[in-house]
Specification:
- The protein is built from 13 helices and no strands.
- It is mainly α.
- Helix 3 crosses helix 4, helix 9 runs parallel beside helix 11 and helix 10 packs parallel to helix 12.
- The N terminus is likely disordered.
- InterPro entries: Acyl-CoA-binding_protein (IPR000582), Acyl-CoA-binding_sf (IPR035984), Ankyrin_rpt (IPR002110), Ankyrin_rpt-contain_sf (IPR036770), FERM/acyl-CoA-bd_prot_sf (IPR014352).
- This is Acyl-CoA-binding domain-containing protein 6.
- It comes from Hydra vulgaris (Hydra).
- Keywords: ANK repeat, Lipid-binding, Repeat.
Length: about 260
């Protein structure tokens, strides 16, 4: 029995060593493209994909751990840092394996579709904070709650009643446009822009909705914002433009072309 187990292990090791780095790189890049067509990805798996992607491309985590109140930033940092012991080759193989497993779970997966069923795999900036929120009754909800939920009908009713709500900010200094971009509500983003919302509004860190769209990997919204006047050169409190936060090849090329 032990002899057979050793033989199996040796066979697996030989197969692993026989895989050429160029082959792994091709498989990895293909998996990155396929990941964008996944329609059902849990928050946990999104973070795993993010961490493995960063480890595959940049190696060990080389940035300071975000502050405790930066829920999404901290979660992404921890995911990336958790793979610090993996080589580039191992990280890429793990990424490919995870994407293949997720494809099985995604009944609606279609690699031939022309539009993304999920606009990238960036972690929503406010998603991590959402898990601790209590359910709020409709009578206590503000326009920001409806924006977060993607309830355009109620937003229209509130804005028709009070147009000044359009450029208001919440307690965290986030505008409705920041929230809509963060949650990936393209229809609401278009609606807010059509109503005259400032596409270059900033939060307390001087980040614009474009910073959020790039960080979350939402290419369609990135293009939507830019086509409606978003300034790609605006920098946040750390002196970084939206381009600096891009982990997406297509988004990076698009912004660099402007």
């Amino acid at each position: 029995m032990l002899f057979n187990m050793i033989n199996v292990y040796i066979f697996q090791v030989i197969n692993y060593l026989m895989v050429m780095d160029s082959d792994i790189e091709n498989l990895f890049q293909e998996a990155v493209l396929q990941s964008r067509y996944l329609s059902k990805v849990s928050q946990s798996d999104m973070l795993k994909l993010y961490g493995l992607y960063k480890q595959s491309n940049e190696g060990c985590c080389n940035i300071p751990k975000p502050a405790f109140w930066d829920f999404a930033g901290k979660a992404k940092w921890e995911s990336w840092n958790s793979y610090r012991k993996l080589s580039k080759k191992d990280a890429q193989l793990n990424y490919v394996t995870l994407v293949n497993a997720l494809k099985v779970d995604n009944e609606g997966y279609n690699e031939n579709c022309t539009t993304y069923q999920k606009e990238g795999l960036g972690v929503s900036v406010s998603t991590m904070a959402k898990t601790d929120e209590e359910e709020i009754n409709d009578e206590n909800k503000t326009i920001f709650h409806y924006c977060e939920e993607g309830n355009l009908k109620y937003m229209i009713n509130l804005l028709d009643t009070n147009p000044l709500l359009l450029n208001e900010k919440d307690k965290d200094d986030l505008s409705l446009l920041h929230w809509a971009v963060d949650r990936g509500h393209s229809e609401i983003v278009e609606f807010l822009i059509s109503r005259g919302c400032n596409v270059n509004c900033v939060d307390s860190d001087l980040q614009t909705p474009l910073h959020y769209a790039v960080t979350c990997g939402r290419q369609h919204i990135v293009e939507l914002l830019v086509s409606n006047g978003a300034d790609v050169k605006l920098k946040d409190i750390d002196g970084r433009s939206a381009l600096v936060y891009s982990d997406d090849i297509a988004i990076t090329k698009y912004l660099e072309s402007i």
